[in-house]
Amino acid sequence: MNNHIVKTYGDELDQLSAEVVLMGGLAEAQVADAVDAVARRDVALAQSVVARDHKLDELEKDIERKCIRLIALRQPMAEDLRKTVAAMKLATALERTGDLAKNIAKRAIVISEAEPMTPLTRSIERMGKLVSSRLRDVLDAYKGGKVELAQSVWASDTEVDEHYNALFRELLTYMMGDPRTISACTHLLFMAKNLERIGDYATNMAEHIHFELTGEDYVESRPKANTLSNLE
Amino acid sequence: MDNRRSVWHIIPAGSVIGVGVLIAMSFYAPLHPFLIFVALLIVAYTMFKYLVLLGDAEEKIRALKAPEKQVKVQPEGPSFQEVLRAVPDPVMIVSGHEPDDIAARRVIFANAAAQRIFHIADRGGPLVSAIRVPEVLECVDEALFGGISGSVDFEMSGGARDQFWRAFSAPLPMENKHDMAQRLALLVLRDETDSRRMERMRADFLANASHELRTPLASITGFIETLRGPARDDEKARDKFLSIMGAQADRMGRLIADLLSLSRIEMSEHVPPSGETDLPLAVRDVVDSLTVIAQQKNVKLRIEGPKPGLYPIIGDRDQILQVVQNLVDNALKYAPQNSEVSIEICLDVTLPQAVALSDGKAAKLVLLRPDRNVHDYYARITVRDNGPGIKREFLPRLAERFYRVEGQKSGDRLGTGLGLAIVKHIINRHRGGLVVESQGPVSASDDDILERDGKVTALPQIAPQTFTAFSAYFPQSRAFGTAETPRLVVDAAASLKDAG
Question: According to the UniProt entry, what is the EC number of this protein (chain B) (predicted)?
Fold first, then answer.
C-alpha cells in the first residue's frame, strides 16, 4: 500500500485517511439521522444527534493534531503533503457538517411541538436525501481515490440549489397562507439553509479531494443555478 | 521456522566473509584497490539487506508462516475459507490491534459476497474503507475489544435505492500466538431490504389509498343521498348525477389500479431486470395505441430515432412500455390543440451527456440519477410537448406521488397523480435516470433588463416558446456504435434562440 522507506510514516498516513473516513461516516450518519428526526418527529433521535456531535469535534482535533505532528516530524513532500493537508481540510469541513446537522436536530426538537406539516417536512427529507447522497459520493471518492466521482459531485451542486429555491417558495406560500405557522416555517427554512450549506461543504470537499489526487486546482468556476432572480 | 533461521544466519555470514576478505588482504601487501572495493561492497550490501529485513521482519515472518498454517489446518474436503466464500451473505473477518488505531482494523478475509457488495480487494483492506457506518464500527469494536457479540440494524443508501442491513459481530479466538495484541472478530451481514420494504409499503399503500379515495367516495355518497332525497323524481338531474358518479367511480378504479401497479414495481425495485427490450419498437407500439387520442386533440406524434429491431436495451418490456406510455400520455394531456409531441430516441449516450446541463433559460432538473460507473452507455428517450411549461420551483416535487403543479389544468382527462411516480420507480429499477426540462411562461424579470450606458432599459418582451420535455434513459448492455452521434437536448436552447 505505502512504499515509504520508513514504514511507520506510511502507517501514519494510512491512519490519517482512515480517521477521516471514519469521521465522514459519522458525519453522514449525523446528517441522515437529523433529517430522519425531522421527517418522523422523533425527539429522541434528535437528542441523540445533538449528544453525538462532540465525537466529531474530538475526531477533528485528533486529526488536526496528527497532521501537525506529521508535518513537523516527517516533512511530507508532494503527494504526502497534499494527503496531509487534504485530511486536515476535510476534517474541518466534516466537523462543520456535523455542526449543521446538530443545528437541524435542535430545530427538529422545537418543531416537533408544533402541528405536523407533512408536505414541508417531506420536502426537507427529499433535500436531505440528496445532500446525503452527495456526501456519500464525496467520501467514496476520497476513500477510493476516484477523481471523476469527486468531479461529478462538484459539477452537480445546482440540484441542491434548485431544491432549496423550491422549498423557499413553498415555505413562503405556507407562511403567507397561515401566519400561525411562521415560527415553525422559519425553523424549516433554517434547516433547508443548513442542508444547502452541507451540500456546499460536499462541493468543497470534492475540490480538496481533486487537489489531493491531481495536484491541480480547479480553474473553471462552478456551475450555479440562477438563484436570486427566482426568489422574489 | 527453517526459512526464518536461514535468513537470519545468512546476513551475519555475509558480513563475516566480507570482513574476512579484508583482513586476509591486509596480510598480502600491496593491497589491490579493486579487491578492497569488492570487499566493501559485500559488507555494505549485506548490511543494507540486514537493515531492510529488520524493518519488516515481523511481516516477513508472518507471511512465511501463513502457508505453513494452512497446511496444518487442511482437513479432508474444503477448507473453512472455501466454505465461507460460498456463503451468499457477506462474511468478513476483521483484525484489530488497539482500540485507538483505526487504520489497523483490517478486513483480513472477505467472502465473495462481501467483496462484491463492499468493494473489498482480494487481499483485504482497512475496515473503514469497506463500511463506515458508525453503528457497525462500534459493534465490531465491542466484539474485538470487549469480547461481546452483538447485532445492529443499519441503513445504507446505495444510489437511489435504500438498503437495510443487519450486522452480526462475534469475537473469534486469537489466531496468532506471537502477536498477542492482535484480535479477531467475525462480521456477518444480512440484507433485510425485502422484509423492511414490505412493511413500509403496506403502510404507504394503506395511507395513500385511504387518503386519496376519500374524495371521490365522498362525492359519490353525496350524490346518492341527493338521489335518494330531493332529486328522487328529477330525471334530468338523475342523469347528470349518475354520469358524475360514474366518472368518480372510474377515477377510483384508475387510482386503485395505479396504486397497485406502483406497489408491484416498488416491490421489485431493488432487483434489476435481466431481459432485453427494443426501445424504438416499444415507442412505436405506444404511439400506435395512442394515435386515436392524439387525433381527437389534433396533435401530431412524431418519432425521431433509429429503426426498431436493431438495438436491444436491458429492460423489462412491459415496464418500459409503461414508461413510454405514461410520458407520452402526459405530453398529450398538456399539449395544446394542433401542436406536435416529439419523441426522440438516442442511443449510445454517456452519463455526463445524459445529465449535462443544457444552456438556455429553460429550467432543468435531474429527478433521478443512476449509480455512477455502472454502465457506460445509455439509450435516451425524450418526450417533448409545447404545453404551458412548468415553473422552475415546481420541478423538484414532480415525481412525488399525488403531486399536482399548482394551477395546472390537465384537461378533461383527469390523471391519478401517480403516472410520473410510476415512471420514476420503473426507471430506478432499471438503473436509469430521469431528467425534466421545462420553459414556463416568463414574466418580466431581471434577465430581461439590460443596463446600457448607465440607463436601465427593458428589453422588448419576447414570448419564449414554452415546452416541457422529459428524458428517460436506460442502460445499454453494450455500445451499438450507431453512425449518428447522440445529440444533447441543446436543440431546445437553439430553437429558443431562433424564436428570439
Answer: 2.7.13.3
CA distance B378 to B304: 17
CB B470 within 8 A of CB B436: yes
Task: Look at the domain B273-499 and name its fold.
Answer: Heat Shock Protein 90 (3.30.565)
Q: Does domain B78-191 have CATH number 3.30.450.20?
A: yes
Check CB contact under 8 Å for B133 and A166: no
Residues 8 through 27 of chain A touching chain B, CB cutoff 8 Å: 11, 14-15, 17-19, 21-22, 24-26
Give me B66's grid cell: 501463513
Please indicate if any CB of chain B lies within 8 Å of the CB of A42. Answer: no
Flag whether residue A149 sits within 8 Å of chain B, measured between CB atoms: yes
At the topology level, CATH places domain B194-271 in Helix Hairpins (1.10.287)
- This prediction has a pTM of 0.71
For B399, name the nearest residue in chain A, comparing CA atoms only. Answer: A126
Residues of B in contact with A229 (CB under 8 A): 445-447
Query: Residue A7 and residue B135: Cβ atoms within 8 Å?
Result: no
Give the integer Cα–Cα distance in Å for B90 and A220.
Answer: 43
Q: Which domains does chain A have, with CATH numbers?
A: 7-230 (1.20.58.220)
**Do B433 and B472 meet the contact criterion of CB atoms below 8 Å apart?**
yes
Least confident of A85-89, B157-161, B361-365: B157-161
Domain ranges of chain B: 2-64, 78-191, 194-271, 273-499
